[in-house]
Amino acid sequence: MSTAERSVAAAMGAALDVERVRRDFPALHQEVRGRPLVYLDNAATAHKPQVVLETIQRYYAMDYSNVHRGVHWLSERATEAYEAAREKVRAFINAPDRREIVFVRGTTEAINLVAASYGGSVLKPGDEVLITEMEHHSNIVPWQLVCERTGAVLRVAPIDDDGNLVLEAFERLCGERTRIVAVTHLSNALGTLNPVRRLVEIAHAHGARVVVDGAQAAPRLPVDVQALGCDFYAFSGHKLYGPTGIGVLWARRELLEAMPPYQGGGEMIRQVTFEGSTWAPPPARFEAGTPHIVGAIGLGAAIDYLQGIGLEAIARHEHALLEYATEALAEVPGLRIVGNARERAGLVSFVFDDIHPHDVGTILDHEGVAVRAGHHCAMPVMQRYCVPATARASFALYNTREEIDALVAGLHKVRSMFGR
Ligand code: PLP
Fold first, then answer.
1. What does the CA dihedral 318, 133, 362, 366 come to, rounded to 10 degrees?
2. Which of 188, 220, 244, 376 has the most ligand 1 atoms within 8 A of CB, as the residue to mutate?
3. Residue 285: φ, ψ to 5°
4. CA 186, 287, 211 angle in degrees (round to 5)?
């Protein structure tokens, strides 16, 4: 199917043709330990379609040069492609202005940038930063660091037994002292989809700014930062079928313009003297040094690919997989799903009370099934549910029901190996 045909299919609400999609991903067509690979670790990182691989290869082979500073032809071409990628990102999340798109290493760096630069300049002793109990460490630790530096206080909104954010508690905790609210759009440990629009309304009513961790949502759902109403949105390229080492921070222009630099170096300055320096306007102010040029261009290719299929079609496909998996997993004796929130997407975490998740992961690996086992960089979630770790199956646009059947067959095998 051509890109144009895919767009038409997506616009008509057509089902995603998963067999065709799979052909675009070379990594899926290999055997692992003598079995066909079943890759269900997409929340950690996703495989790359051929078009992204070819784009990376082509740019390094033929169009490669440093951006912005060159007057020569290759540099101009590289700059054009790099800036075109910025425009693709802008359109992908419906940001008003491409100068609001800052290329960073990933979600982690984006949140550290906001915490250090924005948080570092606005937070005063006694101010509060409100996060939730379901955050990834990347949306906890940067806030702890800046709170320590500024004397601000970190507050945590609780989640209930099913993994829903307790909205009343969030509302109670969000008050006049709250300067920043930082929430995940979609939890990587529980699959909970947060009501970001509502959280933004509550936060804005108190004059707080909202940072959204979109690492898991951006590859799975249509994201519209203007409709969400948030102030900052962060995501990673490698989970979005693009390269590693590239990610995006979107921020409202007036906020970026008022923020001090995060790192110093080439490209981010207006003028440098030994007496002092002045800063370039955003986004250059926040892109010190040679950026990940080909990473950004590869991310642009991944975005083109996803938009060719349609984020709505991807969301529907993954939702159907999630429902199918949730039902099938319920049939495995002794298996308990951790995270049954009202709104979920993309992944399912589970435990056996008598089998360590690492054993589950290892046995599944011998069946060719790749899942993640561990704390998923969300230790407070593990503490909340009194488990050392969980196993997690996470889906992508290229996964199939047959692959979930293979997961479930593997889990029956795990169960029988440990008795019962
Ligand atoms: N936030 C969430 C919800 C995540 O799932 C992840 C990665 O798993 C991150 C942040 C960090 O992303 P990265 O390691 O790409 O910076």
1. 0
2. 188
3. -55, -25
4. 25
Nearest to 249 by CA among 63, 410, 90: 90
**CB-ligand 1 contact for 179 (6 Å cutoff):** no
pLDDT in tens, 305-344: 999 999 999 999 999 999 999 999 999 999 999 999 999 9
Any ligand 1 atom below 6 A from CB of 194: no
For the chain, residues with pLDDT lower than 50 are: 1-12
Q: What residue's CA is closest to ligand 1, atom 5?
A: 188
Q: What is the full DSSP assignment across 219-280? A: TTS---HHHHT-SEEEEESGGGTS-TT-EEEEE-HHHHHHSPPSS-STTSEEEEETTEEEEP
pTM for the structure as a whole: 0.96
Q: Give me the torsion for CA of 53, 55, 57, 60, rounded to 10°.
A: -140
Residue at 324: amino acid letter: Y
Among 109, 143, 377, which is best to mutate for testing ligand 1, by the most ligand atoms less than 8 A from CB? 377
Task: Write down the residue that tokens 């290892």 correspond to.
Answer: 362
Q: Which domains does the chain have, with CATH numbers?
A: 3-47+310-415 (3.90.1150.10), 56-307 (3.40.640.10)
Measure CA of the first residue to CA of the last residue in the chain; give whole Å: 48
Query: Which long-range contacts does 258-262 make (Cβ < 8 Å, 24+ apart)?
Result: 258/121, 259/117, 259/118, 259/121, 259/285, 259/286, 260/117, 260/120, 260/121, 261/117, 261/285, 261/286, 261/288, 262/112, 262/113, 262/116, 262/117, 262/286, 262/288
Active-site residue, 377 included: yes
361-388 residue pLDDT tens:
999 999 999 999 999 999 999 999 999 9
Q: State the DSSP code for 117.
A: I
Q: Which of 147, 174, 230, 377 is catalytic?
A: 377
Contacts of 189 (CB under 8 A, 6+ apart): 134, 136, 338, 339, 349, 375, 376, 378, 381, 382, 390, 392
Q: Which residue has the tokens 């930063």?
A: 129
